Amino acid sequence: MSEALYWIGWSLQQEDRSAEAFPLYEDALTRFGDDPKARAVGEILSAYADLFKRSEHATLSFETWLQESSERSLAENKLTWFARLTRFTAHRQRRLIDNATAEATLLSIHRLVPIREQDPETLAEVGIVLVDRGYESADDYFEQILNQYPKRFERAAAYYGKAKLAAKNERLDEARRWLIRFLEETPTHSLAAEARLLAADILTRQGVYTAARKALDEILQIKEMRGRPHARALAGLARIETEQDHAKRAIPYWQRIYTLYRAYTELVVEAYWESAQLFEEIDDPIAARNTLAELLRDERLKTYPQYAQAELELPRLEKAAQARSATAEQTADTERKAEL
Description:
Blueprint: H1 2-14, H2 18-32, H3 41-54, H4 62-75, H5 79-96, H6 99-112, H7 120-132, H8 138-148, H9 155-168, H10 172-185, H11 192-205, H12 209-221, H13 228-243, H14 247-260, H15 265-281, H16 285-296, H17 305-339
């Protein structure tokens, strides 16, 4: 019923009848906001927010409405509705502030709302935040999704989350089974890139390098995964080559990251650092020195531990590079004299 009301409101907006859609959405939120099984409540809330901001008759700002509604829902023990409003607030914070603030807001749901009173979307998002932080309690969220909402698309988060927990605890075969379910049943979910990257990481840890490389190459072929997933796939390929003692093959992957994906600073600083280590491994102190010097010229990287490590390492590499240059000049001079 709630999903039908969303589409009725959407149709009204397409016909420039937003004035009729507004009370329809308002009524839908009142009727279904506190029902964890009601569908499309998040979409209704988003549409209601857009109409609220454009309304000429609103007596308060949407931000005030959102805050007051959240406080009232908590006071009235309408905890499903509170969780939905809090999740909506977190989405706004992720867009307008940063991801850390949004995650802190989502974790307030974990503290204040029992799992049984959370809707599937909230269970999925809070569960993923918990598993990303390494909390075993995330599994309770995934179990709730699979037991109470086994057909909902949010089961993708449960598959991925359970795989991540299993991988963390070295149950790698179990983790792969969960990821196979994810890729077979929910391949278009927003966690698809994360699931593929996790699958490749597990295969790498198991020493199944050919399959891991294939999984990472597939990510690089998917246009929808451009950006950070592509950069992480390149890092995965570099690690595979490093584990197989192919330093010269690993370096170009790292170089592609700090050349083509400079927006992702946590990957850029890792790429510079790993490249420098590998250049040393193949006995090229000049390239290692140049790589760390380039890292230190990027002011954005100062907050990462590799930056401080590079500051400590650069003087030593500078001496090694100078010695190598002097040796090369001496060798060249000797060869010139021999030719005379």
